[in-house]
Amino acid sequence: MSRPARVLLWLAALAAAAGLLWLLAAWGERAETERLREAGRHRLDVYAGSLRNAVDRYAYLPFALSTHPDLAALLRAPDDAALRDKVNRYLIINKASAQASVLYLLDAQGTAIAASNWDTPQSYVGRNYSFRPYFLQAREGHGGRFYGVGFTTRQPGYFLSYPVFDGRKVIGVVVAKVSLDGLEHNWRQGGERMLVADRHGVAFLSTDADWLWHSLTPLPAETLRFIEDTRQYGRADFPVLALKQRQPLDADTERATGPRGSEVLVQTLNLPDLEWRIVLFSDLAPVRQVVRNTVTGGALGLLALLSWLLFWRQRRRRIRDNLRASAALRQAHDELEHKVDARTRDLVDANAQLQREIAERIRTETNLRAAQNELIQAGKLAVLGQMAAGVTHELNQPLTAMRSFAENALALLDRGDTGEVRRNLGLIAQLTERMGKITGQLRAFARKSDGKVEPVLVHAAIGNALLLLEQRLRQQQVRLDIDQPDTGLRVSGNPVRLEQVLINLLRNALDAVRTSPQPAIRIGVAASGDHVGITVSDNGPGIAEAQLPAIFDPFFTTKSASEGLGLGLAISLSIVRDFGGRLTAGNRPEGGAYFKVELSAVDWRP
Ligand code: ADP
């Protein structure tokens, strides 16, 4: 949701909450007011009952008194002092028993002729009450009622009157004045705030002294005149009750601000029989308090709801975040798995590639080895080719000798010298043996070796090599020294190939000493530790320093095309390395070159 939308939503929620609180307040106020009103109505009924009760208690009293014959007798003979005393006493007794304030008897002109208070300073006797409505009503022949302030005593009271008849004629009026102060006192005691007003609206009973003799509404002039005429309340002005901001709720109820600024509910109960009305004032402060409590409660409830909502939202957000995080985690996991898959595939591919390359390598190596074997063989054949002339010479010599021995033998045979024939044939046999040895050696050298590594007797290998080069050694008149203290030394190698290496080294030495004045070649064999070293040295020109690093390279040669191919040393190095040995070269301090073959010694004796 966008930010402005969220702000709008919050504002709407706030407005709704405020509206809700307002409704709650209005509802609370109405309900509480209604409750107060109901309670007020109920109390009004109770107070009306007690008021009626207080008044009705005395309703019979004037009538009962009027029937006493002494009263009528006194009215007829007002000057009878004895009778007046009797009536006075009678009134006193009745006043006491009825708990009335004053009982008195008026004559037809309204003058009191007897009273229960005849002997007190406030005695009514002799006073005229003809202006009082209760007198006028009774003189009309029926009971009268009137509430007013005592004309003589200044005490308010309820006046009940009844005519005293002489036959049908009204000859006087008996009056009972009762006080309602007790009632007023009771109400005040009950903490009630109320007043009782007459039919004009003048409060004549009140729990609040400030309200007494106030009118509920402004009084019209004729009412004021009536009150004055009847001297009902002994006063002439009746200020209007100070109620402000009056707000009628119905015919009998209104809400207003009281004289002390407090809000009140004003309830009126009309008592038509008495022509009075009771007005009850109920303080609205508790209503306000209840409304405040209700609104506070509502606000707290809304706050609780809000915090719950926030909590719920937070929780939802957390759950959503968690879900999102776990989805991200799952995705990451999937991606990882994917990557691992891809990487594994790559590895498998790489591995397969490697396997292929290894196989290729093995194949190449096999091919290389085959090629190498071919090369060694080729090198050997080349040497054989170059040695062919020497070998032919080597074979021709015994052949020529054999021919002359054979011719000699034939001639000797003719001569019958069988002894000499035998010697010649013996020589021929010797020569053929030597020839067979040479050709056998040639065949052995030419044969293709399987390269198998086995113990090789060094002495034999040197002997075989020299046999093939014998003719050249002799032809070049080379001095050959063989320094081999132990002829039983064996090395790990292959006899044919070791022979090939030695032939190569000896042939190079023979080439080197070709120009030497006293050509000499030396072969030294020595064991050192687990190695056997075979050194071939000569007294030729040696190897130029610059060429030393190159002499083992294939096709490196300083000889003419017919003499050298430059393969001899390369092939020899390869053979020696195959045996697990070393082939090194260098110049001797006294001149000439040396070549050293080092091979593992084999401790084997037949
Ligand atoms: P080739 O003998 O066919 O030239 P090699 O590989 O046997 O091939 O020898 C390579 C080169 O090493 C020779 O041409 C020569 O220059 C040098 N060389 C070999 N042996 C000797 C030696 N004993 N004295 C001097 N130089 C030598």
Question: Would you give an account of this structure?
Answer:
The protein has 606 residues and is of the alpha+beta class. Helix content is 53%, strand content 19%. The protein is built from twelve helices and 18 strands. The strands form four sheets. The chain has a six-stranded antiparallel sheet with strand order 7-6-11-10-9-8. A five-stranded antiparallel sheet has the order 2-1-5-4-3, sandwiched between helices. Strand 10 and strand 11 (276-283) form a beta hairpin. Helix 3 runs antiparallel to helix 4 (81-98). The chain starts with a helix and ends in a 6-residue tail after the last strand. It binds adenosine-5'-diphosphate. Residues 504, 508-509, 512, 538, 540, 542-543, 551, 556-559, 564-570, 593 line the site of adenosine-5'-diphosphate (ADP).
